[in-house]
From TrEMBL:
GO annotation terms (biological process): fatty acid beta-oxidation using acyl-CoA dehydrogenase
Required cofactor(s): FAD
Subunit-structure text: Homodimer.
Gene Ontology molecular functions: acyl-CoA dehydrogenase activity; flavin adenine dinucleotide binding
Protein name: Acyl-CoA dehydrogenase family protein
Pfam families: Acyl-CoA_dh_1, Acyl-CoA_dh_M, Acyl-CoA_dh_N
PANTHER family assigned to the protein according to its UniProt record, in alphabetical order: ACYL-COA DEHYDROGENASE FAMILY MEMBER 11 (PTHR48083:SF13), MEDIUM-CHAIN SPECIFIC ACYL-COA DEHYDROGENASE, MITOCHONDRIAL-RELATED (PTHR48083)
Domain spans labelled Acyl-CoA oxidase/dehydrogenase middle: 128-211
Source taxon at top rank: Bacteria
Domain annotation Acyl-CoA dehydrogenase/oxidase C-terminal: ranges: 239-388
InterPro entries: Acyl-CoA_dehydrogenase, Acyl-CoA_DH_CS, Acyl-CoA_Oxase/DH_mid-dom, Acyl-CoA_Oxase/DH_mid-dom_sf, AcylCo_DH-like_C, AcylCo_DH/oxidase_C, AcylCoA_DH/ox_N, AcylCoA_DH/ox_N_sf
Domain Acyl-CoA dehydrogenase/oxidase N-terminal stretches: 12-124
Gene Ontology CC: one annotated term: cytoplasm
Length: 397
């Protein structure tokens, strides 16, 4: 089948308006807040402005108040939103809420959609996704999942320990992955549960201090201790959690890439503006060969990242698993975007590491992306295994 990456004119128009909104409204707030939204007041201010500009919730269906973009359309709009660290929060497409909305639309019952998806889509509440556990639990290898859920009359009791749960501070609910069958190391047997924040069995241990700060609601360590939930808290069917995680993870990997690509483009724009003005050794910085190489390499990384995202999104829109193309795109983007921000900072000299421009912050914010949504090594391992399996199948024919 021919790959068609043509964007609908309505999507192009939404992307254009998003770019304008981010430059005119969001970046001034980003500058005022030093790159990080630390209060509900800022989140509410930004989301109100996004609603007024008609760019709010581009990803959810019209039934839930959104623009209903497919993955290809999201690629165009999310990159523009990502041009500011606060753009995704403004449009209600920041992680983890955006991935959770995607999964709830795909899997939740009608009652669950009304109770959890609708207020999430309008920005009335936030959410988190609780999968990762301290060693020896789930991390790069989700099959190590050791949080357990046992049947109790009328529901389930969850016990376990999670950490690095983004957005958990102030979230109205968590989607918690727990083992309902088998033992750590087994491939299946996980179930997703919707756990309300006021459940006394879900407790915060601490805020984990990390290199990055801009993902709203921080990264929390949580304990599930005798956390009883009703049967209606099961998202989808019991024991299908790993399958549903794939529904969330493939698209969520791509939307992370889209948002961070916006930051790569912004970094390049800052560096190019500086290289065009700064004069050293008798010429403009941008006319010196090694500076030109950095500008060109940035352009190549950005173009390649964009191309890989679009290819993977097209496959997802065709209903394909896209596991190989999303893994390739995620690995390349996480590393390429880091390179772009790093080169841009280098081009700006001492100014680059100062707080006068945002490149130092961007570098800190983007570094963890090579770890979450699958570390580069896990993806390379999975990519190589698929290639070898393909080789083995071809050799047997
Ligand atoms: C900022 C941030 C936000 C996060 N948000 C969330 C969240 O909201 N919800 C959630 O559930 N989790 C979240 N995580 C957790 C994240 O998904 C995990 O950190 C990630 O899956 C890696 O797991 P781990 O940290 O346990 O590393 P480990 O599994 O211990 O892996 C350590 C290292 O081993 C290497 N490695 C991995 N696989 C292979 C391989 N096959 N071959 C060779 N080497 C390999 C990699 O270098 C890897 O970094 C977040 C993490 C960060 C840093």
């Amino acid at each position: 089948m021919a790959v068609d990456l043509t964007q609908d004119p309505a999507v192009e128009e939404l992307a254009r308006r998003t770019a304008q909104f981010v430059r005119e409204v969001v970046i001034p707030v980003e500058e005022r807040e030093h790159g990080v939204a630390r209060s509900e007041d800022v989140r509410i201010e930004l989301q109100r402005a996004a609603r007024q500009a008609g760019v709010f919730a581009p990803h959810v269906s019209a039934e839930f108040g959104g623009h209903g973009l497919d993955m290809l359309g999201r690629a165009a709009v999310f990159e523009q939103a990502g041009y500011s660290l606060l753009g995704p929060l403004a449009l209600n497409i920041a992680a983890p809420d955006e991935g959770n909305m995607h999964m709830l639309e795909a899997i939740a019952t009608e009652e669950q959609k009304e109770q959890y998806l609708r207020p999430l889509a309008t920005g009335e509440v936030r959410s988190c996704f609780a999968m990762t556990e301290p060693a020896p639990g789930a991390g790069s290898d989700p099959s190590a999942l050791s949080t357990r859920a046992e049947r109790v009359p009328g529901g389930w009791r969850i016990d376990g320990h999670k950490w690095f749960i983004t957005g958990a501070e102030g979230a109205a609910f968590a989607i918690c992955m727990a083992r309902t069958a088998g033992a750590p190391g087994d491939q299946g047997g996980a179930t997703m549960f919707l756990v309300d924040a006021d459940n006394p069995g879900m407790k915060t241990i601490r805020h984990i201090e990390t290199l990055d700060e801009s993902l709203y609601g921080g990264h929390l360590e949580l304990v599930f201790d005798n956390c009883v939930v009703p049967d209606s808290a099961v998202l989808g069917a019991p024991d299908q959690g790993f399958r549903y995680a794939q529904v969330r993870l493939g698209p969520a990997r791509m939307t992370h890439c889209m948002r961070w690509l916006g930051i790569a483009q912004r970094s390049q724009d800052i560096a190019v503006a500086r290289a065009a003005e700064r004069r050293i050794f008798g010429s403009r910085l941008g006319e010196l060969g090694m500076a030109q190489q950095m500008i060109a390499d940035n352009e190549i990384d950005i173009a390649a990242a964009r191309g890989l995202i679009l290819q993977a999104c097209w496959e997802l829109d065709q209903g394909r698993s896209a596991s190989q193309s999303t893994a390739i795109a995620k690995t390349f983007c996480a590393e390429a975007i880091w390179r772009v921000v790093d080169r841009s900072l280098q081009l700006c000299g001492s100014l680059g590491v100062s707080g006068d421009i945002p490149l130092g912050r961007f570098l800190r914010e983007v570094r963890p992306f090579r770890i979450y949504d699958g570390p580069s090594e896990t993806h390379r391992w999975a990519i190589a295994r698929r290639v070898l399996r393909q080789h083995d199948r071809a050799a047997q024919r």
